[in-house]
Fold this protein.
Amino acid sequence: MRKFILKRLLISVGILIMVSFIIYVLMRCLPTSYLETVARQKSMQPGSKSFEEWMQQLSATYGMDKGIIPGFVTWAGRALRGDFGDSWKWTVPVMEKFQDSVWISFIMGAISFVLEIAIAIPLGVIAATKQYSKTDYAITVIALAGISLPTFFFASLLKLLFSVKLGWFELNGLVGRNYAQLSAWGKFGDRAWHLVLPVVTLVVISIGSLMRYTRTNMLEVLNADYIRTARAKGLSESKVIYHHAFRNTLIPLVTIIGGSLPGLFSGALITETLYSIPGIGYVSYQSMVAGDIPFSMFYLTFLAILTLLGNLISDILYAVVDPRVRIA
Amino acid sequence: MSDNNQNSNSSSGTTSYSLNDDRRVRTLSPGRLVARRFFRNRVAVTGLVILVFMFVFSFIGGLITPYKEDQKFYRTEQKQGIFAAVKENKEQKLVISEDAGFSKVDGTMFEAMAKTAKGSFKVKTTSYTMEEDGEDLTIIFPEGEENPIAFVSSYVVSPEKQGETFPFEMQYLILKSITDQEDSFEYDGQTYEVTEGGGVSLDGEPVAYASRYTVNPQNADTFLTRQFKEELIADIEAQKETFSFTDENGETAEYTIKFDPATNSWSILKTVDSYVFDTYGSPSMAHWLGTDRNGMDMLTRLMYGGRVSLYIGFIVVIIETLIGVVLGGISGYFGGWVDNLIMRIVDIFYCIPSMPIIIILGAAMDASRVDPQIRMVYLMLILGFLGWPGIARLVRGQILSLREQEFMTAAEATGLSVHRRIFRHLIPNVIPQLIVTMTMSLGSTIITEATLSFLGLGVKFPFASWGNIINDVNDTYVLTNYWFIWIPAGIALLLTVLAFNLVGDGLRDAFDPKMKR
């Protein structure tokens, strides 16, 4: 087991190096005029350095004056020590901005993740046990509609209905206008209230795939021989489904859920942007659109790490949860 | 009933077969079996119907619609614009002779003295005397000279014809004859008659007139006739609020008179028809879904937008599939180090966060102002190039299991070439799963493209796409007031993607021979 994890870790590190190298090359290949634009914008800001100085600094800081490979080595060396440089857009160290924004994303992601599991798995199980019934069709279509629903359209509809027509929520932002005057509990409530629409959006958008996954796996288990045996023994239907079938469905579910845990930190790029929630997704979106290379480099690498971590966790979980799996 | 039908069917055939004749049994090819299973699935058929509708709507609708993709519509809007300003000369106005030859400083000093002084004043070394000639005219002479150097009056001399100006002396003579109530004066060898009400004419032709009011047109090009001015002033003095004027061509125009106490002047407002873009026009018979921000027909934009979205979806999926099938096929068939290498590449591509990358590239293309058409091509290439690993994995997995089966051993034993074995025997067996995956990823590609266009980083104006049509909701006013701009596009998008997913689901079930139904 230890050998397996070690091997996977090594492969992951290799992949990570390659991915960050590709991202780095990509960043370097952006049209140079683009970098000049950034430098010009920077130098326009009041009290800023001149254009040439910015160009020099940008080139020096990001190894733009070096070749691609030495530049990458420099960048990677710093990144290993946790130094991703200063963000151009936010004019603070990248890590500082990251620590400011990641927690709100995590909270938002975690709440919607829990809701998603709590809604999707029971519905998926029901759909599978009543295959080809009206309930099954309804659940399948709803799940597909959730997958097909473009985030931005759904968010706009929610805003129109609940913010404009009913006036229950504000259109965007994390805190209300009078946030500063509120008590500690009031502040907490205000933030929670502002998170309702984003969380609803996230849950509805992501619920479909988990629901379908549950249904498919449950169906597979229900067709297995040992379920027929259980029924033949005369067990009650609920016992068959919840003791024998569901436990076996849990194997792929736990794997996939475990694998998506790291993703909670990645932030919801589109949803956060739509609701202007200052989480890591929205902050990165702003940085990327502004051409903030240090922050974008960091964010892309961070996402790659999260993906690799997710794969690693699900692989390990798969072996842990299902004793039939032999690790070579 | 049904028995009867069958009987009549078989009897209508030329021969009746014996009971164990094979021809009595209808056989279906695997393709027709799949089609039958598919069409029995009502949800999937609904999806297919939606898809057909969307294709007709986007590709044929664009031909039928009377409008072009970027045809702009206009409407006339009535706007009250300032036409002229009228001011009563309560303060007296100083006019200096062109011959006075003051330097700038002297001129200013002279002006200041002339306005305040009484009787006489002195500027530098020269003394001037002021002579009051009636209530409204004060004439200023340099000490001991006959010819006036300036005068102060509340009357203003305006020309009868556009573009004319009068020299100082003539202005002086006109005003003097008016104040002295003389009938005529002589200037430059010609005799001018002075008529009642301040008019001056030469040989019966009106030349100029003097008035206490200055009327300045807002637009320097417009020339206001004397008649217009007089009628206007009469109405102002009568404290009317509206004014109508019929010019010599018999055209009547309506004006609104507004007094502005701050500047002590009147503004004459005229209602002008201005020609503007028909922005956010409500749905009407001409435009069933109204018009958008640029005054373009919404329904037509929606059709062309659908075209763009579907095009992009198809091309991206084709690119993905081509790369995925080739790499996955090679990897699965050869195994060993080739497989290892390709699978590591797949792993790497899996890890590259595609959405952020596309956003960054979109922003870079924004900065370097890439032409919208070329941009669309780039977008397809990027999406296709980032999307293939899923398909490669699928194909590899399938081929790994297929190549162990007997028919592959048979193919190898007959001595078929590698190329033929992969592309004629293995790939066709992967096609069912491939079609399902492609249908599903069409839907997700369309969503990705729409999301990018919504963020303003995908398809750009002047091209329409469902995403960039919805982009307008970033303006809260549009979100609140113009549902017809974004809701139809959103519904079209949702329906199309949903339909692709439903059809994909239906196909998956239909291809699966183990299916119960």
User: Anything to note?
Assistant: The two ends of chain A are 9 Å apart (CA to CA). The mean pLDDT of chain A is 85. Chain A touches chain B through 50 residues (CB under 8 Å).
